[in-house]
């Protein structure tokens, strides 16, 4: 996808308290969506798919929040729950300060004007038997709204707004290309002048050449209409250009949430780093970029029985015992950058006493390019040195090398905190 026009201006990370409250359009706390698994004649519940398993975030007015993560991590479910197309099983959702968590269909009706969703599939989301005019005017009919100048005139204005001809009013979806259909979906979503638009993979079904056009259109409309977006995508290639802040999801949890500059310049969660390394780097000056790719072994584990502790520990090259036993909380380690990791990148280790890599981490490290390990080591060593300069002398029993990190003969070392694993350290019991 080519570059889009999003400016580098990010939404301010901090504002004074009342201002900040006003600034928040959507606030999600401890949000959960568990799908029950039932078996037998009595349909007894035997388990649950923990698609979204306790997430907290805010969406500020006028911003674009990107949500990324591999397939199955719960992004779409999160989108459907925050728009209340599905009911949450736990937590709360506040829209403009109003608790909408438990509103029923009738209670949600007035809010349907304000909260809209754009879907991935421009083919499946438009009824093939309806004309474009009928599709785009549906929200007016459903809400009983009569726009000034009449529905037809308003629909034609919307079609023009999204770059289509008003003459397309009487045509059918099959007469349009994928990009044009997505424009029709956008026109429909914007019909009632919503405040929040949740777009689930809005361009991933489109040709790469068309993706930038649709993203640019959404960007223009945001400026023009003052929209707030939540844009869901499976990788960073699209959201990196359009988002002010980005939430990275893994197995039903947010593992990192940061403004995009911080996320790109200094990702703190190893999973974010892996996702970033999967994005093709167009800059030819970044020599050897290809060899820096991190390959994640295997699929995302099942959300029916997620791994204990940090859910990413089974695939992480930095995982130690604590990662297996204790879930790291999502903490704001740097201003505007929240991360849930015991051994974050480029930052003081959160569990410096825990130095022995898990067996799975050693296997995962084989898939992490030497350049990545070296880069981790370099930044971590710098952080460790800085911490050392300001803190008490290192505690007993933990050895720190002068460069903060070493790579052992088996090619694996824990690099996050400048503590190196030596060959006589005991093996973890991770089996
Ligand atoms: N209605 C449902 N009933 C049971 N399980 C569901 C339901 N909807 C989603 N899931 C499960 O919840 C998990 C998260 O799915 P979800 O579609 O939200 O993930 P995703 O990150 O959006 O993935 P993708 O990009 O493939 O859509 C998956 O394991 C999925 O199978």
UniProtKB/TrEMBL annotation:
Is Aminoacyl-tRNA synthetase among this UniProt entry's keywords? Answer: no
Q: Where is this region: Disordered?
A: 377-431
* InterPro entries named among the record's database cross-references: AAA+_ATPase, ABC_transp_ATP-bind, ABC_transporter-like_ATP-bd, ABC_transporter-like_CS, Oligopep_ABC_C, P-loop_NTPase
Known CDD domains for this protein?
ABC_NikE_OppD_transporters
Keywords carried by this UniProt record: ATP-binding, Nucleotide-binding, Transport
Specify whether Translocase is a keyword of the entry: no
- Family indicated by similarity: Belongs to the ABC transporter superfamily.
Single GO term (MF): ATP binding
Q: Which SMART domains match?
A: AAA
Composition-biased stretches, type Basic and acidic residues, lie in 422-431
All residue ranges annotated as the ABC transporter domain in the record: 26-276
Q: Which NCBIfam families does the protein's record reference? A: oligo_HPY, PRK11308.1
This protein is called: Dipeptide ABC transporter ATP-binding protein
Concerning Gene3D superfamilies, the annotation shows: P-loop containing nucleotide triphosphate hydrolases (3.40.50.300)
Which species? Answer: Streptomyces fuscus
Q: What Pfam families is this protein classified in?
A: ABC_tran, oligo_HPY
